[in-house]
Amino acid sequence: MKIIVGITGASGSIYAYQLITKLLALPSTIVSQIAIVYSETGRQVWDYELNSDPITNERVSYYKHSDFFAPIASGSAQFAAMVVVPCSMGTLGKIASGTSNDLLIRAADVMLKERRKLIVVPREAPLNLIHIENFKTITLAGGIIIPASPSFYSKPQSIEELVNTVIDRIVAQLGIEIDSYRWGGRGE
């Protein structure tokens, strides 16, 4: 499976970091390639919040938000899914309106037009009616909204464990089976 990860300027870069790390821990027969595109401010927020360089791996490729010649700008590249994590409300609105003014938005538009999986992970509160209408529009177009709302029933002991309660839901929506906490006990 080839997956695109879009990283915006919303707070919550740890969600993107944990998702990429978890996907790379899977065999290449499950996740063969990860294409990463930051929004214009996504990398700045990543640097500020994580104080970490981008993840390097032979399965990871980075594309500039202005690079419309990148493979992820076309359905012919055969990426199976895209996760926008964290997703700012500005990016959400652009996806909902089909305004493909940068590579991240174009890649999301490609997922919707090709009827492939688009998962959007907003990390903002409170929401206004425009945000909610944009959630509705993306959902009606075939996208999946997974708010970055961690669960506590697994009794997470660290920030990473708490974040992974959201990441595990994202991975499950990608159709990838992993060992994760399920209500009532560990998934066996």
Q: Order of strands in the sheet with the most strands?
A: 3-2-1-4-5-6
The CATH homologous superfamily: Flavin prenyltransferase-like
Instruction: Please provide the count of β strands.
Output: 8
The count of helical stretches stands at 6
Shape: globular
The radius of gyration computed from the alpha-carbon positions, rounded to a whole number of angstroms, is 16 Å
The third-level CATH topology is: Rossmann fold
Order of helices and strands: EHEHEEHHEHEHEE
- The CATH architecture would be 3-Layer(aba) Sandwich
| Main sheet makeup | 6 strands, parallel
What fraction, in percent, of the residue positions are helical? Answer: 25-40%
Strand content: 15-25%
Compute the number of structural domains: 1
Query: What class, by secondary structure content?
Result: alpha/beta
Average of pLDDT? 94
Q: List unreliable stretches of 5+ residues.
A: none
Distance between the termini: 23 Å
CATH class: Alpha Beta
Which helices and strands occur, and which strands form pairs?
Elements: E1 2-7, H1 13-24, E2 33-38, H2 42-50, E3 60-63, E4 81-87, H3 89-97, H4 103-113, E5 117-122, H5 129-140, E6 144-145, H6 159-173, E7 181-182, E8 185-186
Parallel strand pairs: 1-2, 1-4, 2-3, 4-5, 5-6
Antiparallel strand pairs: 7-8
Helix pairs in contact: 1-6, 3-5
